[in-house]
């Protein structure tokens, strides 16, 4: 298990000439995406195109509803060149983490106070159900115990981050890790479009949409573009901040779930070998998630002590976070080889899809009746 210092140094160790072409493509696609959806070159930037264009012209009006984050992701999904892989991977991993840290500026105390107790209960109940069902159905779908554990954690908590955190705890083979990461990433991308469409289609209120989006999507990076899509089509209030807060409730359960799986893995080893043959590995909360909380607490304190200045800083950080997230999501699309992902994880896709479908359906029903 690496230290937080080593994790921090990885941001710089991974910088070399190979990432430059991919990063430039991500930056170019980001600028294009903002231009086509907002008429600016970055979030909150000066207008290059007339704002009237995005209300009067049907094509640009449609693109405005899609938003820059989703558009950048979609464009880069169709750019599959090995030259851009390194830069896309760097943006999709490290810049995404930086964007998530900055997103903490959205989740202040005044936002959290609007969260519902029923929403919190639903989030935790569906999380537990997702993981238990995955372990029960995994064997029937021909998957190993390790694969089921990683799939349940990825679906239930926070996608790739959860998968990579639990993998060393249960000493999972890398072939299982790669398959789960690929399939979870693919389903997360599908969810960016599917979940807001379902929320709007069934006529959810904004409060319900916040719980539904925050409780069903795999990655933190999936929540904001999905919330943006819902905001665009529903025309209601911004649901991004609270959807992100509900998502962080799932993330907070990572250490607990990882510890349980570590205990179960050791019991399995003892059953086979009469002893636990390998050193127990403890899961840790990833550094960028800790900094997310620090950002949220710090922004809350700043707004309380100096409201005008605090809100100005918050606005600037939100604009920066959206811009960086757009670059990062372009990187996710750039580094996602759909054909390879389906090839590696084709035996896992049915299990992961069924579990996620059940998760979405249960979350949908509970949210509509209890929130």
Automatic annotation (TrEMBL):
InterPro entries linked to this entry: UPF0324_pro (IPR018383)
First-listed, main subcellular location of the protein, grouped into a coarse class: membrane
Chain segments annotated as transmembrane: 20-39, 59-82, 119-138, 179-202, 248-266, 287-310, 316-336, 348-370
Keyword field contains Cell wall biogenesis/degradation: no
Keyword entries, A-Z: Cell membrane, Membrane, Transmembrane, Transmembrane helix
GO cellular component: plasma membrane
Compartments, as annotated in UniProt: Cell membrane
Stretch forming the signal peptide: none
Keyword Membrane set for record: yes
Membrane topology per record: Multi-pass membrane protein
Family: Belongs to the UPF0324 family.
Name this polypeptide is given: Sulfate exporter family transporter
């Amino acid at each position: 298990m690496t230290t937080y210092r080593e994790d921090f140094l990885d941001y710089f160790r991974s910088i070399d000439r190979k990432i430059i072409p991919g990063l430039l493509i991500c930056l170019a696609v980001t600028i294009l995406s903002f231009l086509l959806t907002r008429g600016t070159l970055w979030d909150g930037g000066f207008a290059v195109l007339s704002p009237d264009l995005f209300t009067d012209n049907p094509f640009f009006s449609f693109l405005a509803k899609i938003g820059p984050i989703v558009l950048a992701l979609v464009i880069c999904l169709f750019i599959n060149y090995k030259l851009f892989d390194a830069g896309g991977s760097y943006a999709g991993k490290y810049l995404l983490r930086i964007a998530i840290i900055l997103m903490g500026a959205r989740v202040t105390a005044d936002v959290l106070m609007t969260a519902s107790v029923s929403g919190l209960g639903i989030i935790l109940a569906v999380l537990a159900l997702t993981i238990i069902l995955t372990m029960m159905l995994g064997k029937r779908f021909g998957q190993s115990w390790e694969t089921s554990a990683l799939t349940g954690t990825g679906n239930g908590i926070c996608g790739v981050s959860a998968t990579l955190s639990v993998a060393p705890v249960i000493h999972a083979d890398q072939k299982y890790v790669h398959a789960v990461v690929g399939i979870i990433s693919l389903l997360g991308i599908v969810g960016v479009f599917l979940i807001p469409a379902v929320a709007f289609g069934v006529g959810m209120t904004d409060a319900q949409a916040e719980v539904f989006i925050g409780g069903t999507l795999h990655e933190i990076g999936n929540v904001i573009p999905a919330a943006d899509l819902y905001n665009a089509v529903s025309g209601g209030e911004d649901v991004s901040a609270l959807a992100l807060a509900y998502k962080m409730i799932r993330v907070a359960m990572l250490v607990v779930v990882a510890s349980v799986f570590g205990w179960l893995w050791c019991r399995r080893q003892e059953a086979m070998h009469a002893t636990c043959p390998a050193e127990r590995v403890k899961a840790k909360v990833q550094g960028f998630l800790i900094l997310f909380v620090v950002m949220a607490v710090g922004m809350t304190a700043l707004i309380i002590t100096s409201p005008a200045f605090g809100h100005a800083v918050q606005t600037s950080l939100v604009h920066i976070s959206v811009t960086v997230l757009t670059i990062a999501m372009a990187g996710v699309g750039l580094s996602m080889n759909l054909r390879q992902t389906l090839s590696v994880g084709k035996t896992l896709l049915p299990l992961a899809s069924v579990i996620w479908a059940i998760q979405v359906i249960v979350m949908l029903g509970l949210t509509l009746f209890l929130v």
